[in-house]
Design goal:
Elements (H helix, E strand, L loop, with lengths): L1 H21 L4 H4 L8 H22 L7 H27 L4 H25 L6 H22 L16
Helix pairs in contact: 1-3, 1-5, 3-4, 4-5, 4-6
Length: about 170
């Protein structure tokens, strides 16, 4: 099932790369699809399809799986951190931004998310009852950040369009 999730995330993530322009720059689509080449916006390529897949998983078996929500929150957050670190690292090493490297980083981050998800799900870790609440809160905060920072990005390099500013 995790392999299907990984394929789903990669395919939907690649399609999301173009969705904002295809939607004629719809503000509703801007919440779930990248609007520019900033690292923050690239996080949506992972966030949106992973959360859609999590909803599909939840409907089929997640509601009966111990620690489903905390595992999803931790793996999504970890995957987003991997994506940020690898994008920064690739830009520093190459001294420029390369679209196919960004795509490779997205795929590696997706692989990291699903490997971590699989490991945590299969390990049967016992967590405190508050973990579900904490995981839900983390997922909510990530969703809010995706929405708010799309329209009101802070003045930080994470939010700068890497392709426009490098020309």
């Amino acid at each position: 099932m995790k392999i299907y999730g990984m394929l789903f995330t990669v395919i939907i993530g690649i399609l999301l790369h173009f969705t904002y322009v295809w939607s004629d720059r719809s503000p509703f689509i801007a919440v779930v699809a990248p609007v520019d080449g900033s690292i923050f916006q690239q996080l949506k390529l992972l966030y949106t399809p992973y959360m859609l897949w999590a909803l599909i998983e939840y409907e089929h078996y997640g509601q009966f799986t111990k620690n489903f929500i905390p595992v999803k929150a931790v793996t999504l957050f970890a995957g987003m951190m991997v994506l940020i670190l690898l994008l920064y690292l690739s830009a520093k090493v190459l001294r420029r931004n390369v679209p196919w490297i960004d795509l490779t980083v997205f795929m590696l981050s997706t692989l990291a998310v699903f490997c971590t998800d699989y490991h945590l799900t299969e390990s049967g870790l016992s967590v405190m009852p508050a973990a579900t609440l904490s995981g839900s809160l983390l997922l909510f905060l990530i969703a809010m950040a995706m929405s708010v920072f799309t329209f009101y990005p802070p003045d930080h390099p994470l939010f700068n369009d890497r392709y426009r500013s490098s020309n």
